[in-house]
Design goal:
It is a single chain. The strands form three sheets. The chain has a 15-stranded antiparallel β-sheet that branches. A five-stranded antiparallel β-sheet has the order 1-21-20-23-2, with no helix packed on it. The chain is elongated and about 75 Å long. It has two domains: 4-26 and 291-363, Immunoglobulin-like; 31-287, Jelly Rolls (Sandwich). The chain contains three helices and 23 strands. With 366 residues, it is mainly beta.
């Protein structure tokens, strides 16, 4: 619907430009850039990149040199792990942990280390891709991505699936404390998409009253998301994650079973509770950050008498397109253009007919 928009009103405007065009340069990051910036942090205690010339090098933790062990279960074997998988981009590799058909412990393979030391304040980052948008066939239907447990102290930092049990295996969650229950769980994502790469991070603090407060962050890189979504802070009803030396499972339980079907590119663990700006900086090192918020091109097709406007966009964001002949009075051409990954285009079907026309794009605030 077209409507007149008075220029005296205040809008968050992407750009105002006449019938000329310019091209913006996209700045791209990489996983190797991410690895480099991570290594400069003094709080880094464990870095798993799954890169190397040999399988042993790919399983070697880059700070302490600890080597992960394959952890098959049921009818699964260590050979079920895939070491030559591509990562999020061509600067890194990932390792594929496996889960076969059947119940929670039928067959599969994850990774394990006997002891990792966690502090009462800690953070993590995981870059991964799920093979399936649900886990089913078992009593629990959980796929453990990064977990530890000693006795009744659970550190289920990142899991495909959620409480209550049995799960549908369609979510991403983090559960800390004395029971796998909603009272101890932060639901990070309601519906995971198979084949999508996700960047997930979390910051955790064990409180004096034996509760744990944690905040998680997520971006769907395959959907073009470049800004982390924050979930939390959340304080559980009781119980910490294990501190000191504890067994850790990557792509599977801390002991064996209930593995995660997918690719894991990067895992970092820090001995401090990091904030959102820290994780956002690391995400920017992968994606290159947000491209300049501007119109890229405006092109006129004399045959169809249409004008196409293209601008930098964020997937899922809603935009409005306006036109004007004097940049004072504006006509709204569309107020519901949904952004795509990287760039979005809109076609104005009204002929210009030798008139000077200006266009602007507005992002609609949620």
């Amino acid at each position: 619907m077209k409507s007149s928009i008075n220029n005296s009103k205040s809008y968050k405007i992407l750009a105002i430009i006449g019938c000329i065009f310019f091209i913006s340069n996209f700045v791209r990051g990489s996983v190797s850039d991410f690895q480099t910036i991570v290594q400069t942090d003094p709080d880094l205690t464990h870095q798993f990149t799954f890169d190397g010339e040999t399988n042993e090098e790919k399983l070697e933790e880059k700070v302490s040199g600890v080597v992960l062990s394959p952890k098959p279960y049921g009818s699964g074997t260590a050979q079920d792990l895939e070491y030559e998988n591509p990562g999020y981009d061509n600067t890194s590799n990932s390792i594929a942990t496996q889960r076969g058909q059947g119940n929670d412990f039928a067959n599969g393979a994850g990774l394990h280390t006997a002891s990792i030391t966690l502090n009462e304040r800690m953070s993590y980052e995981v870059l991964f891709q799920a093979d399936s948008d649900e886990i089913s066939g078992g009593n629990f239907n959980l796929g453990y991505i990064l977990t530890t447990r000693i006795g009744n102290d659970r550190g289920y930092f990142l899991v495909q699936g959620n409480a209550p049990l049995p799960s549908t295996g369609q979510q991403l969650s983090s559960t800390i404390g004395d029971g796998f229950a909603e009272r101890n769980q932060n639901l990070i994502l309601e519906t995971i998409e198979a084949g999508h790469w996700y960047f997930v991070s979390g910051s955790y603090v064990i409180n004096d009253d034996n509760t744990t407060t944690f905040t998680n962050y997520i971006a769907d890189l395959s959907a073009g998301e470049t800004i982390l979504k924050r979930i939390g802070p959340f304080t559980n009803s009781g119980g910490p994650y294990p501190t000191g030396g504890s067994p850790v499972g990557i792509g599977g339980r801390w002991d064996a079973g209930e593995s995660f079907p997918g690719q894991i590119d990067e895992i970092n663990i820090y001995n401090s509770d990091k904030d959102q700006s820290f994780f956002q900086q690391h995400l920017d090192s992968i994606t290159g950050g947000i491209a300049s918020f501007q119109i890229n091109t405006i092109s006129y097709d004399s045959d169809s008498k249409t004008t196409t406007i293209n601008w930098n966009s964020i997937s899922g964001k809603a935009y409005a397109v306006d036109s004007s002949i004097d940049m004072i009075e504006w006509n709204e051409l569309d107020d519901g253009v949904i952004g795509k990954k990287d760039t979005t285009s809109f076609v104005d079907n009204e002929p210009i007919e030798n008139r000077k026309v200006f266009y602007r794009i507005r992002v609609l605030e949620e």
